[in-house]
Hints:
This protein is α/β, with parallel strands linked by helices. It is 32% helix and 29% strand. It starts with 19 loop residues before the first strand and ends with a helix.
Amino acid sequence: MSGVEKSGxxxxxxxxxxxxxVDVLVVGGGPGGLIAAREMATRDRGLSVLxxxxxxxxxxxxxxxxxxxxxxxxxxxxxxxxxxxxRKITKVIFWAPDGTEVRVAEGDVGYVLDRTRFEPALATExxxxxxxxxxxxxxxxxxxDGDGWLVAVRGGGREYxxxxxxVIAADGVDGMxxxxxxxxxxxxxRDMESCAQYLLTNVNVDQDAIxxxxxxxxxxxxxxxxxxxxxxxxxxxxxTVALRAGGRNARQWLDDYVQSxxxxxxxxxxxxxxxxxxxxxxxxxxxxxxxxGDAAHMINPLSGGGIVNAMKAGRxxxxxxxxxxxxxxxxAARLERYHDAWMTSLGDDHIRFHKLKDALSKFDDSFxxxxxxxxxxxxxxxxxxxxIFGSALMHHPTLLPxxxxxFV
Length: 408
Ligand SMILES: Cc1cc2nc3c(=O)[nH]c(=O)nc-3n(C[C@H](O)[C@H](O)[C@H](O)COP(=O)(O)OP(=O)(O)OC[C@H]3O[C@@H](n4cnc5c(N)ncnc54)[C@H](O)[C@@H]3O)c2cc1C
């Protein structure tokens, strides 16, 4: 088994017999994989569902700002009084490049999670529903076997092979499983944002608000975020696109940002990670395999949010996958239903958002400074999305072709 390497091309070596057989093998214990496992096990208690997580803990290390919208989250788990909520968010505040503050929403906006507790809560639900979870266990290769897959696995000090009737590739932003199965998961470099984030203490921000800060001098190609974590702490991070970042990495941009805006902040943890701001891959399924979440580029290309999207995809994969297993047909033709349903619910929107992001990237900072002032001219209580758009179009007609092209 040592010849099976984690690369796009798998070496041609003889594989040992499978030492274990399962109906469903979920690779990846993030929100997408955990919801897929929970929903599969819940829908059909007779199915054997096994989830592999490479890291030594479900939910850690955290590579995330941890912000989610209320509506999407509540479809999956009740956040009321949950120990995995760091903050309930009731305000969204934009900062224009020149620092102009624009308050755009107030009410039941969302939550900042504690993912070190959130994902274990999902894992518990998956486990109680009957799914088995192996941590510190990694899929290292994949090979077709009849109408299912052989999956090479390393964990617990041994290497072995599992045979699965259906594989769920939920292995995240740098996942290889879908690629091993022949799907095209490449990302154009302009659509890969490099992110860096500190958990800072001793910062004085409104703990009920999330802040999003735009500008080429702040985070070229992306934006900076401030997501409160309770007490006087916050996740403060930013994303940049390498082609626009002037040869400086995200950490360097972040250090400047923190120095300028949060000079008293005390750094208590640090993370880096990639966010794919690219529409969903063209094919998310092949025979006996479904790709879920970041592994399928299902992140919202405008916001960079992917937690709820991954959960929605996991649920959809369970719906389509369980029906296919019951029908005894896990062919790509049958699993296409997953791809089609995803594109109809969110994937097609992501194509539009991706084009919009591209179009907006052509406007410079002074345009967004003026736009912020225009929006601030609308009375706060009348600041609905429709009015903001209407007023922005009236005062900045250069936006018209952008909006017309991508939203009409
Ligand atoms: C800095 C940063 C900030 C972000 N902020 C936000 C935010 O505020 N809100 C939001 O909604 N989204 C945010 N995101 C995006 C969000 O984190 C992802 O979209 C989300 O985690 C995707 O879930 P997933 O289940 O698809 O993948 P992941 O959460 O990445 O889970 C994949 C899992 O698969 C495991 N794995 C990988 N390969 C293997 C293998 N071969 N075998 C076994 N296990 C494997 C990994 O260890 C990982 O645990 C952020 C991302 C970054 C990098």
